[in-house]
Amino acid sequence: MVLETQFPSLTEWFKPAALAWIIRIGSFCLIALALGFLITGVRMGPKRSWAIVKGAIKNAFSDLAHLSFKRIFAVAMLSFKEAIRRKILIGFVVFIIVLLFAGMFLDPSSQDPARLYINFIFWVNNVLILLLALFISSFSIPNDFKYKTIYTLATKPVRSGEIVLGRILGFTLMCSAMLIVMGVLSYGFVIRSVAHTHKLTSDDLRYVATTQEGAQALEGKTSTVKEHKHSVYLSPEILKDPAGKTVMTEPTNGHTHQITIVGQGKDRQYKLSGVKNMFTARVPIYGNLRFRDTTNFDTNKGINVGDEWEYRSFIQGNSPAALIWLFKNIKQSSFPNGLPVEMTLGVFRTHKGNIERGVMGGLAIRNPDTGLMVETHLFESVEFNTKRLLVPLKIKPASRPQVISSKTKLSNGNVVHDIPENKLNQAYAQKAEFDLFKDLVTADGRVEIWVRCLDPMQYFGAAEPDLYIRAYDAPFALNFVKGFVCIWLEMFLIIVYGVTLSSLLSAPIAILGTIFIMITGVFHNYVLQLANGLTEGGGVLESMYRLLRQDNMITELPDNVLGDVISMSDQVINYIIGFVGYLAPDMNQFANSEYVASGFDIPWNLMTIDALTALAFFIPLYIFGYLCMKLREIAA
Amino acid sequence: MNKNASFRRKIIYVIILAALLYPMFLLSQPASPGKDGQAGSPGGKLAQLRTQYGMDESELGDVDIIATSFRLFGLTPIADTILWDAANKYKMKKDWISLAATLKQLARLMPRYESVWRFQGWNLAYNVSTEFDDYRQRYHWVIEGLKFLENGVKMNKKSIRLTWDVAWHTSQKIGKSDERVQFRRMYKADDDVHGSRPIELRDCWLVGKEWYHKAEGIVASGVPLGKISEVLFYSNAPMNQMNYSDNLEKDGRFDEKVEREWKKAQDEWTAFGNREIPTSQGQIIRLNDQEFFANQEKQLSRELEEIQPGLREEMIQQRRLKLTPEQAAAYDKNWVDRNAEEINLANEAEEILNITNMQLAEKMSADRIEHGLEVAQKLDNAKEQSVWTDRYRDIVNFKYWRHRAAFEQLPDVIQARKLIYEGKKAFQQGDLTVSKRDYDQAFALIKKSKDLPQFAGLDDEDAFQLDFKAVMETYMKILEQRNETLGDDFILHDLWEKAGGL
Amino acid sequence: METDVIIETRNLTKTYRDFWGRQKVRALSALDLKIYRGEIFGLLGPNGSGKTTTTKLLLGLLFPSSGEALVFNNPADDVSKNERIGYLPEESYLYKFLNAEETLDFYGRLFRLPTNVRRQRVRDLIEMVGLGWAKRRQLKEYSKGMTRRIGLAQALINDPELIIMDEPTTGLDPIGCREMKDLILDLKRQGKTILMCSHLLADVQDVCDRIGILYQGELKEMGRVSDLLQVRDVTDIQTTKLPPEAEAEIRRVVERFGGQVKSYGAPSASLEELFLKVVEEGKTHPGKRYQASEQATGDSKPFEANQKKEG
Q1: Would the CA dihedral through A428, A431, A435, A436 be positive or negative?
Q2: pLDDT at B51
Q3: Are C213 and C199 in contact (CB under 8 A)?
């Protein structure tokens, strides 16, 4: 799976994030209070305004203390009933209709239908539930004002904070219920749409010779369903006594089927099962990638072979160059059968070479403490396909083992070895067989995996997530649910924004405002880049100036007053843009359907980070909503 | 009473609605394709009209609700921009699955836009396929591109360009790419692409030819060619036949089938030569007729001069008087000695001194003028036909291929090719003696054949020389291995010299 | 006797400003008002005089431009006072998608009443306002009278000490009007304080102890009804029916004391009383119709003064 941004672990993330949050919220509150103090001070004198400010703060805390869960729950129930009785369930109907027609929209002959279908279904759910949440939440409080039901409400001892919180809670419950139902239907839809089976008859199979003397195997292809078929290979062992045995077909389009052989002789029949191995949720262990260049020095980046997309870096073939991954915390108890390694390499040929054969590569394991390196596999690369290799517990080396150290050149020119040269003991390499955990993995669980390209003038390329150890498989259904939880978090945020903004603005403006903020969230990175002046072509006014004059991006601004005005205004505008950019979280961190679709478990640390982010936005927004409600003159 | 009346009205409405269903069904029933050998139904009136105008989308499985609703709301440009952008992004990130899906969505959105089909079909077959290292995957993506284009043809049955694109890419991408050996092999075995097509016809050149014929059929049904060049357009099908025959020999077949196929190629080329092709000037030419008009030109030219002999020289003399001294001087000078100014002057002089046939005829005496004009007219016509036919011949290398088809049919030549094939195989297995012997024998046969009178001038053809150079590449390697060099007594020495080998 | 001051306003002013901050309307000017526990106070005035503005200021729905509004000796915008007050607005501002039971239950929850108390009150109130037959119907299907009644029920759900009513009898039919007035007097008997705004003078006269009259945002008159309306220079005597000879003698007695008989005859009952009587008879004797012959004789049934009449 392509992972362009890897998320840090929870402990790494939490401290700086929490600190940043406290500083931002705290400074914002202080600034707001200061401004309030100044403004009222101007109108009513400093003593009175200080009393007002103090009173306001005291009020706020007292309100907080008096928050009653019973009342919040009552308001929540009210919102729930409101949502149902406003016939929001129409959204449901739309969902069903979209599902029914999805088949025409999706490509059944794709080589990876699971991925397409899952991405599609997540997208549909995401869009629908967000729209639903947006409309439900944005009309509620403005309607209260429009129909003056707020008068009755405001004359009851319910705090403004409770009104806001209760509504948020009620809508969240409502939308969660809908999301759950939609999720169940989606799951069923995906499984069902992809489900199929093939037919296999004796006519489809032919006898072929094997390497064993006189032993024959059966080979053939299944019928074509959904524009693909599977190769079938029945080995001589199976054919000795075939009745009742099961065999797996070759994988095609990301799945296999199980064949059960029934009957004897002429009546032999082959029954194929439904789809197997299509829906997985791998839990990968990633390592740290570094590159070794042809002069044996380790660097952070490899060679760029001219790709626009700089995700992968390349190394040369038939040279000391290598891709090196360092893994930590590898314990024998977790891997009793050896290390299951999966890798997806990029391949670049400078000449066609042998067209019939993939570029050859070698995989080796190295002990970072002793420097012992043993090559375990020689493989034929297949670009864009994931190769699975199992490093067994007992390793017979594929080539002569070595003991080497890794050296890096520092910026001041010094050379640093990870193992001092005099400590390298070549005796380690003098064995016929090696034990994975005794010889190659260090005591604290560190081990390196080296990948080299063997064909001259060809290149291998990789990014850090391209090679991982497949620790275990989590249940796919759970992963599916996790994906939906991420959607739930987005939905929750939308509800919070909707209710909060609508406590101040009218319903259509609140909707527009929420949509605007969501869009800012989706383009979060770009907005921040823009605000920090890192985008090409400068800021808003500068670009406008160039557009009007039809200049290209490199043309300098004029060196006169106009140019100066533009630069300075842009700085101010950038500052404002930066401010707006922080109003919404990076929505992309919630969009995790690609994990589910590609068969990778959504890491728990990512989910925790998402949940904490949602909470981090909820708190200030809630305070803002509370203030808006409280300060609003209801009957005006 | 009121309740009853309202109820009755509702029942009447329902009956009317039900009755309306029947004519609606007649109108809008979609066409359905044939299943399992049964013929499909042409569908209701609207579906028939659609077929008639080539706007086929009417088979039930092809109707795209989403795309149609996009079009209804005028959202097509927005969706199109987003999808095209997404497609580029997927291509950059090498996300082929998503790219293919997005392209299919794009095509669904604007099925009548030829350029979308053409571009993306080409994109898949040429750009995406090369990103893959494994030839099997490259093949898969070439076929994806071809399938994509074929879908486009289904949607735009009257599009010449799309049909032509399928033909071209099938022929070129499978037949001429670096992986052609592997591709052709896989193509032959590919049941999904060919369906019930017999193994014999599963050659990319033959399939391409089928599609070229389809394209020609569209033109024959009345769709104008537009800006497509006619001479190139109609040359494609017979060229495929040529390539097919050539490929047979490259695959190692040298039996009577090869001779038959080359004969077929020759016949098709002749038929092509007989086609009436309009030129950019507006006259109609036929490629076969060049010799006829060249001869006619010679005859008529002689005839013209004989009507009033000496008239031309007279006129030249008269015109000379009109030259200025500078022009005359420049004109008389040897062309190598002229400087820039003098070249200009000389050109001017030449122009003035040029006497066209019509001008000559006009100056004839009264009793001969009528005849003269007639001959001059015919002569000019013949000259023009000859010149233009020659030009157009050059475009498709007409003479070379005519010769080549005939040449390759000679049993000697087939035998020579066989010897070269076996010789190369022997060389790859290390048997230098056998391979050199085969090559030498082959060269002797070639010399004998090419010296035949009907193939005079074949030597000078660039394509023939290139072909020979490719053969010589291996021969030079053999010689090098044997520590020998090419002697001056080499049987095809002249040809080798012409090919620039020395 | 210093009784509890429930409501007090000091120099209460409200000016509506437009967007640019300029003064638009001066709704209330320097109102000084005190309302004591246990009394029914009527706020009178023509439309636009500031009655509703005053109630909204007291409820905390508006913020004063200057001056103070105090309820239970706390500022009016203190939310905790809401525990002890009930508000019956002119239009019923209730959620239309709830039914009667749910409405009362919701507001009851907002007071954090114990569940059984809440449920009991809901039942009692629905019965009291006579909506038991419609308690499961959504409020959007209610008639105006019904919504007024459910509004009244929600105002009383918390058994408040102070009830603020805005035009409580406006738009009601005579029976409903009577019932409302009876209810208001009943509430007073329970010791509650009531502030009501109205422009229906007769109704105010019937129930209020004290009144204030607003005009163009200013308090023009305030005081006890009986004091304000008492006609000082006339004595009112009511007797049972006397024979016609008594008239002359009574005139003589009055003149002896220096007065003058201004009017002598049978008094008129109020139209309300007639109406209620007809309705009552309609309930007990259904099918009885109006007889045209009675009109011809010119002798319609006389009104018996000794019928039910509440004062």
Answers
A1: positive
A2: 65
A3: no
Q: Domain of A55?
A: 1-65
Among B64, B101, B192, beta carbon nearest to A110: B101
* Cβ neighbours, 10 Å, residue C109: 22
Judgement on whether residues A317 and A443 belong to the same structural domain of the protein: yes
What is the spatial distance between Cα A508 and Cα B31, in angstroms, rounded to a whole number? 46
- From the list C106, A596, A491, A358, the residue with the least C-alpha distance to B138 is A358
Spatial CA neighbour of C138 closest among C96, C180, C174, C86? C96
* Separation of alpha carbons C138 and C99, rounded Å: 4
Whether the ipTM is more than 0.90: the answer is no
For residue B1, what pLDDT is reported? Answer: 56
What's the token pair of residue B8? 């009755």
CATH code of A455's domain: 2.60.120
Q: Mutate one of A100, A111, A230 to test the B interface: name it (highest B CB count within 10 A).
A: A111
What mean pLDDT comes out for the span B314-318?
A: 85
Across the interface, of A73, A154, A156, the residue whose CB is closest to C61 is A154
User: What's the domain count of chain A?
Assistant: 3
Residue A531 lies in a domain: no
Q: A266 pLDDT exceeds 80?
A: no
Would you state the pLDDT for residue C298?
A: 47
Q: Which amino acid is at B318?
A: Q
The residue range of the domain holding C164 is: 5-229
Question: A55: buried, middle or exposed (CB in 10 Å: 19+, 13-18, 0-12)?
Answer: exposed
Give the mean model confidence (pLDDT) for residues B140-158: 90
**Domain-located, residue C302:** no
In a domain, A53, yes or no: yes
In-domain check, residue C298:
no
Helix, strand, coil share of chain C (percent; to 5): 40, 25, 40
Burial classification of residue B30, based on how many CB atoms lie within 10 Å of its CB (0-12 exposed, 13-18 middle, 19 or more buried): middle
Question: What is the secondary structure of C197-212 as a DSSP string?
Answer: EES-HHHHHHH-SEEE
- Same domain? For A327 and A359 the reply is yes
Whether C309 maps to a domain, the answer reads: no
B21 falls in which pLDDT band (50, 70, 90)? Answer: confident
Q: What is the β-pairing status of strands C66-71 and A394-395?
A: unpaired
Nearest to C110 among A85, A150, A156 (CB): A156
* Cα angle C198, C202, C205; round to 5: 85
- Please report the pLDDT score of residue A483 as a whole number: 95
Which among A65, A94, A117 is the end of a domain?
A65
Residue A451 falls inside a structural domain: yes
Within-domain flag for A174: no
Helix pair A90-105, B65-72: axis angle to 10 deg? 120
Same domain for A359 and A228? no
Residue contacts between A and B (CB atoms, under 8 Å): 58
Name the phi and psi angles at C299, rounded to 5. -120, 75
Contact predicate C126/C104, CB 8 Å: yes
**Cβ–Cβ gap C97/A635 under 8 Å:** no
| pLDDT at C309 exceeding the cut of 60 | no
What sign has the CA pseudo-torsion A170, A172, A177, A182?
A: positive
Shortest CA gap A47–chain B (Å): 59
Q: What's C167's domain CATH number?
A: 3.40.50.300
Domain match, A221 and A361 both: no
User: Which residue type occupies C246?
Assistant: A
Q: Round to whole Å and give the CA distance between A606 and C47.
A: 63
- Percentage of chain A modeled with pLDDT above 70: 97
Q: Is there a domain that residue C270 lies in?
A: no
Q: Which residues of C touch A151 (CB under 8 A)?
A: 59, 61, 87, 89, 93
Tokens 């070759």 correspond to A250
Q: Where are the alpha helices (DSSP H) in B29-55?
A: 45-52
The residue in chain C having the minimum alpha-carbon distance to the alpha carbon of residue A73 is C109
Are A265 and A287 contained in the same domain?
Answer: no
| Same domain? A242 vs A304 | no
